[in-house]
TrEMBL record:
Protein name in UniProt: histidine kinase
Biological classification of the source: Archaea, Methanobacteriati, Methanobacteriota, Stenosarchaea group, Halobacteria
Species of provenance: Natronorubrum texcoconense
Gene3D superfamilies linked: Histidine kinase-like ATPase, C-terminal domain
One example GO MF annotation: protein histidine kinase activity
Main enzyme class: transferase
PANTHER family to which the protein is assigned, alphabetical: SENSOR PROTEIN CREC, SENSOR PROTEIN RSTB
EC number: 2.7.13.3
Start and end residues of each stretch annotated as Disordered: 364-411
Domain Histidine kinase intervals: 165-365
Length: 411
């Protein structure tokens, strides 16, 4: 299959059952023939009949089963049946003509000859029809894959154009509007201030939406969404940016060095959005966030915990759905991007004392430009081996003074 996996198609079992039924009937007929002519058959004749008649009959039974389990579409079953029964009847007719002029010296021999002709012809026809159907199917799938590739290339060009349009035209215009509104606010009177604040607020919201759309476009247009990303550096940068921007926030980040995952630049937006979401909806007197990383042999899980008020049951049902109000993408875009990278995101814990989001990504081998595993200068060990927690790395600590309240939601 073009997508690298065998996809089972819905099938009508009529033709497979007919083929298998013919084989089963022929096999039963062989035993009837053996019993009916037992008095004139010696062990050699029975053994020869089993090889030439019963074995091809079992081949038809297996062929019918194999056809029913195959990925060949129902629309090609009729062609296979024509090959199977046509060759069986045709080979029988040829041998019947020979038997008319050169008959076997016993009736049992002529009957066995006829049954052999039908079975072997049917098996040969089934084989030819099956091979032909598979060849046609491969050609159709190859053509469809080519068409899909061309369509994806065209769509990628459109996404690139839209991204450039958003960046050069729409985003620049929104920023210019926002800048002029901010300048006018400095000297505005009370009457104009309300309108200018609305312009300033809406232009900020428009810029946020444009950034969200561009993040999705950038991730979608990447030809390789599974390049290697240093998760430690990425989380360090995002935690530092959030800590510098919000003074009253306490952050505790425990991130191993040089942990590589599969993804692209869109991962930066994913973690920035989840971290921002943890702060934005946190009404605690002392807002706190804890970021921990757990590595397994094939995956890396990042847990972001807060001490906020939790998420209501009603909101949890549509937490990762696309929101129609305020044009927000938010966690919906996080969900789309993470799944594009072959990972998952979920709300693992929530309650009055905080929430925990878990983002699981595929682990990538850490190699340098020469294809050799990168090494930790502190331990001189290759990061291609498994690490867990922070036992083999130095945590990033950005914790302010710890309070004793409101930490039940933190790990």
């Amino acid at each position: 299959m073009s997508d690298g996996a065998a996809v089972r198609r819905p099938t009508d079992a009529t033709v497979p059952w007919l083929v298998g039924g013919l084989g089963a009937l022929s096999f039963a007929f062989f035993f009837g023939w053996s019993l009916w002519f037992a008095s004139e058959l010696d062990p050699t004749a029975i053994a020869l009949g089993f090889v030439t008649v019963a074995v091809p009959a079992l081949g038809l039974v297996w062929g019918g089963y194999r056809l029913e389990r195959s990925t060949i579409g129902v629309d090609r079953h009729r062609r296979i049946a024509q090959w199977c029964f046509g060759c069986g009847v045709g080979f029988l007719a040829v041998n019947a003509l020979i038997m008319i002029f050169f008959p076997w010296h016993t009736t049992s021999g002529n009957i066995s000859w006829a049954q052999f002709s039908l079975n072997v012809g049917a098996v040969a026809g089934l084989t030819v029809g099956y091979v032909e159907a598979r060849a046609i199917q491969r050609e159709v799938e190859a053509t469809a894959a080519t068409v899909r590739a061309e369509r994806l290339a065209e769509e990628r060009e459109v996404l690139t154009y839209l991204n450039d349009l958003l960046r050069h035209e729409v985003l620049n215009s929104a920023q210019i509007i926002n800048g002029h509104a901010s300048l006018l606010l400095e000297d505005a009177d009370d009457r104009s201030r309300t309108h200018l604040e609305t312009i300033d607020r809406k232009s900020d919201a428009l810029t946020d939406v444009i950034d969200d759309v561009r993040a999705m476009l950038n991730a979608s247009r990447e030809s390789d969404a599974t390049e290697r990303v240093d998760l430690g550096d990425l989380l360090d940068a995002e935690v530092t940016a959030l800590d510098d921007r919000i003074d009253e926030l306490e952050i505790d980040a425990d991130v191993p060095d040089a942990v590589f995952v599969s993804g692209n630049e869109g991962l930066r937006w994913v973690f920035a959005n989840v971290l921002e979401n943890a702060v934005e909806h946190n009404d605690s007197e002392h807002p706190r966030i804890a970021v921990t990383v757990e590595t397994q042999a094939e995956t890396v899980t990042v847990r972001i915990a807060d001490n906020g008020p939790g998420i209501s049951a009603e909101t949890r049902e549509t937490l990762f759905d696309r929101k129609s109000r305020n044009h927000g993408l938010g966690l919906y875009l996080v969900y789309i991007l993470v799944h594009r990278y072959g990972g998952s995101v979920e709300l693992t814990e929530t309650g009055p004392q905080g929430s925990v989001f878990s983002i699981t990504l595929a682990r990538a081998d850490a190699t340098d430009d020469d294809g050799e595993p990168t090494r930790d200068p502190k331990t001189d060990t290759a990061h291609g081996t498994e690490t867990t927690g922070s036992a083999e790395s130095e945590p990033i600590s950005r914790t302010g003074s710890q309070s004793d309240d409101g930490d039940a939601g933190l790990p």
